[in-house]
Amino acid sequence: MRMMTREDCVRLDTSDPLAEYRSQFELPDGVIYLDGNSLGPVTRSARRLINQRLGEWQQDLIASWRRHDWLEYPAKLGAMLAPVLGAKANEITVVDSTSINLFKLAAAVVAQGAESDRDNHRRRIVTEQGNFPTVPYMLEGLARIAHDVQLDVVPRERLLAEVDETTALVVLTHAHYLSAELFDLREMTAAVQARGARILWDLSHSAGVMPLHLSQSRVDYAVGCGYKYLNGGPGAPAYLYVREDLQPTLPAVLSGWLGAADPFAFADVYTPAAGLDRFRCGTPPVLAYAALEGALALYQSLNLSEARAKSQQLSTLLIDLLQPAVSAGTLQLASPQSAVARGGHVSLRYPYAQRLIAELADEGVVGDYRPPDVLRFGLSPLYLRYVDVWDAAQRILQKVRR
Ligand SMILES: *Cc1c(COP(=O)(O)O)cnc(C)c1O
């Protein structure tokens, strides 16, 4: 195959159906940002909405909670995420952080199982070894207070073998944070359910960069981040999905006052709100929601199949351009070679990865380093151009050749 030239990339940018999205972002001058899978950049609409909320706060003070529907933010942004996750509007709420949502859902499954005649022998939770650590960390904490719950953290190839009649829940990350390797979400969901267990997906590294079909795939539960490919801002509120038919009986274990049926009745005894509103704990951080709302506005018109296609082309382009260094044995591809099996980022191993990432950043090419030797490059299709990938690849090649 002929190596792509910079002119080829310019041509691809000219015919890119997503090219106009770049102007919706406030990217710093002279920076090629290949780290949007860790923290997406500022959107123009986020700045506008934060300013609007500030104005409401300034003018209407406490009346804003009702006058400007601030309390409706979790459900409102859940509905905006529905097309992104392929779910119904009432199946998603936007609250808290990914870690906390993970705990809330796993704890709900554990609490519900203990009270169920059908499922009370299922007291094991299975998750994958070597994946993003908040998953096993949060589950470890849960097992500490739920004494009969056993947590098994096992390698990917043993996952399904570990799911049996004692398993309550399997918690998996759709796109691996290091390798970007994807699970087949529909297949894995069906396989876990066929063994009588429930599945909880962490979508932090896939939502916003590829179409998802949670309803169609009959996914039980899911959580994920607002600040990565969704560009919702540092520490953006996270989301939580529960399939509609599972909602009525799922208890909220972190039963905060705003998740109660009537928070402003200030009753002594907790009665859960209907549906996913019960998974709200406390007062929503309105300015953080405003940033996420601004970012999600972009997704209302986005064709996620086009986004996925471009993301795959960008990551394939980067891999192809770095091929000389991979063939020479200088770099080692740590992501699947096949674009279908790969999420939105590309990882490579390099003995001096940390230094290389620092040197690249000095020249305006921002990627990230993960120990011990991983270079990770996120390829968001919304604001990156093919020429950006070409220019970044040349810089990387120059540095690793020395
Ligand atoms: C980034 C990430 C998180 C982040 O969790 P927070 O609680 O929002 O910090 C969780 N899970 C995965 C798989 C991630 O990649």
Account of the protein in words:
This protein has 402 residues and is α/β, with parallel strands linked by helices. Helices cover 36% and strands 13% of the residues. A seven-stranded mixed sheet has the order 2-8-7-6-5-3-4, with helices on both faces. It has a four-stranded antiparallel sheet with strand order 9-10-13-12, covered by helices on one side. Strands 1-11 form a two-stranded parallel sheet. A hairpin with a 3-residue loop joins strand 12 and strand 13. The model has no long low-confidence stretch (mean pLDDT 97). The protein binds pyridoxal-5'-phosphate.
Task: Give the topology, please.
Layout (H helix, E strand, L loop, with lengths): L5 H9 L17 E2 L10 H17 L3 H4 L5 H13 L6 E3 L3 H17 L9 E5 L5 H12 L4 E5 L12 E7 L11 H10 L3 E5 L18 E4 L14 E4 L43 H14 L4 H18 L1 H5 L4 E2 L11 E5 L3 H10 L2 E2 L1 E3 L3 E5 L7 H16 L1
Parallel strand pairs: 1-11, 3-4, 3-5, 5-6, 6-7
Antiparallel strand pairs: 2-8, 7-8, 9-10, 10-13, 12-13
The structure holds pyridoxal-5'-phosphate (PLP).
Pyridoxal-5'-phosphate (PLP) binds next to helix 5.
Search tags:
12 helices; alpha/beta; globular; 4-stranded antiparallel beta sheet; binds pyridoxal-5'-phosphate; 402 residues
Total helical segments: 12
Strands of the widest sheet, in order across it, are: 2-8-7-6-5-3-4
What is the terminal separation in angstroms? 26 Å
Largest sheet: 7 strands, mixed
Which ligands are bound? pyridoxal-5'-phosphate
Total beta strands: 13
Q: How much helicity do the residues have? A: 25-40%
Poorly predicted residue ranges? none
- Structural classification: alpha/beta
Tell me the overall shape. Answer: globular
Mean pLDDT: 97
What are the secondary-structure elements, in order, as H or E?
A: HEHHHEHEHEEHEEEHHHEEHEEEH
Per DSSP, what share of the residues sits in E-state strands of 2 or more residues?
5-15%
